[in-house]
Amino acid sequence: MSLLPTKPGFMAGRTVPPEPGYYDYAPYMGRPKITWPEGKRLAFWVAPNIEFYELAPPASEARAVWYRPEPDVLNYAMRDYGNRVGFDRMADVMAAHGVRGSVSLNVAVCDHYPKIIERCCELGWELFSHGIYNTRYMYGMNEDEQRRVIRDARETILRVSGQRLDGWLSPAISNELETQDLLAEEGLLYTLDLFHDDQPMPVKTRSGKKFTSLPYMMDVNDVPVLNFQSISPQDYLQLIKDHFDQLYAEGEESGTVMCLPLHPYLIGQPHRLWILDQALDYICSHSGVWLVTGREIAQWFNDHHYGEMERWIAGLGQEGGK
């Protein structure tokens, strides 16, 4: 029985399908078991978003960049605080707990603030791409334009760090319908643009190349929690712990993932830094935690579980078609 209309929608003169089409439904119960190295239960990774906002960005037809009339010096400078002050505070706390970052990087930072990149590399952090600037969106770009952004990010990260670009989070999460196809074709391992699961999942792309969606958890991301939900620092810490506890318990049956997405301009404030310190202290005290980077999760999943999960999901589709 069809409960909802499934006709295509229309946006900016384009036909938008009723579903994204990047994945098929996969119920949480009954999945093939995911195992992590050394019998760990939960893969924990931290994604510092190190971003560059322009004071006077190009206009976007899709959305306004700033909240106030431009030039919005207030909001620009609040984010700049993260790169000047908050980053080093956050990095110090993470290093004290032995937690490496997987940096969601606006690659313009490489040229504007190379000292930040030097420290990320010294700490052994992974760099993946969050686009060029957080004020230039993928919305409305054609395939050639998107491909140029991806290649620019890849070449920049390789130039400044020697690292391969393996992961992607679109700037301001502004992906287009074909963005995931292009990322797979450009040889990336994983995407964070999808928010549909607590375990890694295969992504369906037109090339058929192996491409994985990693959990990137907006519900524990400091921007929506602290900026838009007005949750107290104490409650934010408890939220992180509660989120971890449930995933850790479920990880006894099959490996789970917890991502903690952070922004230096928020968590690096003097009155909030203790949240990160106590959260990492709590999480790292559990012996079943695999402290890891996004690249390492994706590579492990691709090597050990991708094929089995893909076949299982395909089998569900065949059962549904009977």
Would you give an account of this structure?
The protein is of the alpha/beta class and 322 residues long. It has one domain (37-320): TIM Barrel (Alpha-Beta Barrel), CATH 3.20.20.370. Helix content is 40%, strand content 13%. It contains eleven helices and eleven strands. It has helices spanning 73-96, 109-112, 114-122, 143-161, 179-185, 222-228, 233-250, 264-267, 273-284, 294-304, 306-320; strands at residues 9-11, 14-16, 42-50, 102-105, 126-129, 167-168, 190-191, 201-202, 212-213, 256-262, 289-291. Strands 3, 4, 5, 10 and 11 form a five-stranded parallel beta sheet that branches. Strand 6, helix 5 (179-185) and strand 7 form a beta-alpha-beta unit. It is globular and about 55 Å long. The two termini are 15 Å apart. Residues 1-10 have low confidence and may be disordered.
Structure, briefly:
This protein has 322 residues and is α/β, with parallel strands linked by helices. It has helices spanning 73-96, 109-112, 114-122, 143-161, 179-185, 222-228, 233-250, 264-267, 273-284, 294-304, 306-320, and strands at 9-11, 14-16, 42-50, 102-105, 126-129, 167-168, 190-191, 201-202, 212-213, 256-262, 289-291. Strand 1 (9-11) and strand 2 (14-16) form a beta hairpin.
